[in-house]
Amino acid sequence: MFEPATEAKLADHCTLCVHRRGILTGQAGQYNHYVWDKSIPNVELSPLCSPNFRPGPPGEQAQVLSQNMDDLLKTSGCINFEDLCICPGKLSWVLHISLVCLDYDGNIMDACVLALVAALKNTCLPAVTVDEETGDIKTDPTTHTPLSVACCPVSTSFIVFDNNILLVDPTNEEEKLATGAVTVVAEGSNLVSIYKPGGTPLRDDQIEDCIDRALERSLEAARLIDDTLCSIDR
Amino acid sequence: MASFTVVKQEEFEAQQEKGSAHVLRCLTSGLSCLTRQDGSVSLSQGDTTSIAVVYGPAEVRINKEQIDKATVEVIFRPKVGLSRPEHRKQERIMRNTLEPAIEAHLHPRSSISIIIQETEDLGSNLACCINSACLALLDAAINMNYMVAAVSVAVKENEDMVLDPSKQVEKEAKSIITYVFDSVNYQIVTIASTGSFSRVQHMEALKLAREASKSVFQFYRESVAKKLLMSE
Amino acid sequence: MAAPIGNVVIPGDIFSFTQLKSTDDAKKILLGPGLKENDLEIKVIRPGILRYRKPGVYWVDCHHKRYIPSKGESVIGIVNQKVGDIFRVDIGGSEQASLSYLSFEGATKRNRPDVKVGDIIYAKLLVANKDMEPEIVCIDSYGRSSGMGVIRNGGFLFHTSLNLARKLLNPQCILLKTLGNRFQFEITVGINGRVWVKAHSDIQTIAIVNAIVASEYKDNDQIKEMCKRISKAVSRMEVD
């Protein structure tokens, strides 16, 4: 099966996103959201990408990132859950999303969101037929329908230095010195999330500034993703 | 040991009268509600309740020792089950919110641990947990630069704003934004949101939450005053 | 506006120097615990009651349960370990205090004091600094014990809040005097919230401990009333 993989690269930082599709058979009566609750996107920060990470179970940062990706998928509305349904109440697609960091140089959130969205846009689902009598499931690999992705959220991260200097797209070194961080996820003219986990208190105009820049950047990045996808030879 | 309960009554009455969406739910705090801890508090915002305790400045494990400041640990315990990634995220938000508020460099080579137990989540749980943690720090008289107050705002499908939403409102809402402010300049310490919203809605919610945070700070003052003036 | 002396202040409250100066005309203002100088302002960093003493001394009086060592204070500690020439003593702070075997009255290299692990020690803090390990001694600057040393012969040690320990040591508190009129007992109060009590019988000891714990939020009249009740109850029990 064709498994879409995308690589997002921000300067020295790159993240690979692979989607693996599976079919989940559910008991009659279960509704489709159930599937989504079971599949948390997984972000992997292994020693491969940076010496800061140790092998073993995912650390706090990886867990928080996975959760952020999960929240983003569920609340941004970029995927309509019903599109994944094959046979209501019985059969549904499940998307396994693994985000593997290849080279860690800070600003992992932006890279992950970029890779995630690009991979979703690049996903094709084969046609499935279900035999009513035997219950056999047949996939037809020759006909693909692309997964419909309603919107294209783009994340923009900022860090705070010395309590008043805002810096966009921080590197790993800069992140270590920062006293606070803000991540704005924008989609068109809407905000999908503003995430400022503590740190130095900021004034309203500083947050406004971040939002302005995030909105501006989201348009550029969305255009870039679309251009790249158009150039792919299917 | 005595425990000090403070109920913010006028807000309770205001809510009963108008059923207005622009007031906080009734705040109730019980300072020093437990005996063995350095600081403890049980806080309820409406029906949402949490218990927070603080130990510190206490002995620190050698691998977590920092020579220039105290190590701040935040542990969040969900009501049932083990902590999952979503709780890790909450934990991290809370730690990053509280750590800069604490004057950690006054207690080098020690640890300040904050343990927050969710007891009842009926809406605005994150806000309740952050507020209880801040009150517990005040109860333990930990040196702090400023206090923090968290307020949640829900944006409904019909664009209405609801301050301090209940579980029911949260379920129906388009998005929920939690803001945390500091007590000195009322600047923004934390923003955590779920669901999409527009820029204008963010500004409106921010204004609403900031006004509400002032009454949370007033509530902190009343709670602490009740405890301190008791022994006068 | 004058500084709110005697009122509750909480972290983040800010005063100007002129505000503080208006209460007296001291040339120099001294800031005690809980206050921090920040540019040209004074910032409160812990919740408590703002206090003032002439000339120009300000501090925040707050409720602690955890002890933070401070130089010159008398504390009660428990010997935890004996490492070479020093003892490690738990005084309730974030670190164990060290106590040299030579800092006892009359101790020499030959004549070592009789201290065992688990002993209770009443001592004074010689070094207390946020960056250093606290050190306690059982002698004053003349080399005399002046009441300090190992506390022996039974008794009962219990923990209270630091506030209560300070209250007991406050000369205005009548609790110990009132209790002393009714019972005969020995008591040692460490400023670190540890109190050691010994009376003629266990019943009396327990009664005194209960009276102390219960007195935390009582005023002098209530304390008198309570002592009366307790002594009645004790005399009834002792008859049985």
Automatic annotation (TrEMBL), chain A:
Domain Exoribonuclease phosphorolytic: 41-126, 153-216
Keywords, in A-Z order: Cytoplasm, Exosome, Nucleus, RNA-binding, rRNA processing
GO molecular function: mRNA 3'-UTR AU-rich region binding
Amino-acid biosynthesis in keyword set: no
Subcellular location: Cytoplasm; Nucleus, Nucleolus
A Gene Ontology term for the protein's cellular component: nucleolus
Any GO BP: nuclear polyadenylation-dependent rRNA catabolic process
Gene3D superfamilies, alphabetized: GHMP Kinase, N-terminal domain
Membrane spanning residue stretches: none
Family, as annotated: Belongs to the RNase PH family.
Protein name in the entry: Ribosomal RNA-processing protein 43
Species the sequence originates in: Plakobranchus ocellatus
Upper taxonomic lineage: Eukaryota, Metazoa, Spiralia, Lophotrochozoa, Mollusca
TrEMBL record, chain B:
Keyword Transmembrane: no
Cellular component terms (Gene Ontology): cytoplasmic exosome (RNase complex); nuclear exosome (RNase complex); nucleolus
Protein name stated in the entry: Exosome complex component rrp46-like
Molecular-function annotations in GO: RNA binding
Record's keyword terms, sorted: Exosome, Nucleus, rRNA processing
Family per similarity comment: Belongs to the RNase PH family.
InterPro entries assigned to the protein according to its UniProt record, in alphabetical order: ExoRNase_PH_dom1, ExoRNase_PH_dom2, ExoRNase_PH_dom2_sf, PNPase/RNase_PH_dom_sf, Ribosomal_Su5_D2-typ_SF, RNase_PH
GO biological process terms on file: nuclear mRNA surveillance; poly(A)-dependent snoRNA 3'-end processing; rRNA catabolic process; rRNA processing; U4 snRNA 3'-end processing
Keyword Heme recorded: no
Domain Exoribonuclease phosphorolytic: 25-142, 147-212
SUPFAM superfamilies registered for this protein in UniProt: Ribonuclease PH domain 2-like, Ribosomal protein S5 domain 2-like
Protein localization: Nucleus
Automatic annotation (TrEMBL), chain C:
Subcellular location: Cytoplasm; Nucleus, Nucleolus
Chief location bin: cytoplasm
Pfam family, one: KH_6
UniProt cross-references to InterPro entries, sorted A to Z: Exosome_RNA_bind1/RRP40/RRP4, KH_dom_type_1, KH_dom_type_1_sf, NA-bd_OB-fold, RRP40_KH-I, Rrp40_S1
Biological processes, Gene Ontology terms: CUT catabolic process; exonucleolytic trimming to generate mature 3'-end of 5.8S rRNA from tricistronic rRNA transcript (SSU-rRNA, 5.8S rRNA, LSU-rRNA); nuclear polyadenylation-dependent rRNA catabolic process; poly(A)-dependent snoRNA 3'-end processing; regulation of gene expression; TRAMP-dependent tRNA surveillance pathway; U4 snRNA 3'-end processing
Ranges for domain K Homology: 155-201
An annotated GO cellular component: cytoplasmic exosome (RNase complex)
Keywords noted in UniProt: Cytoplasm, Exosome, Nucleus, RNA-binding, rRNA processing
GO terms for MF: RNA binding
Family to which the UniProt record says this protein belongs: Belongs to the RRP40 family.
Protein name: Exosome complex component RRP40
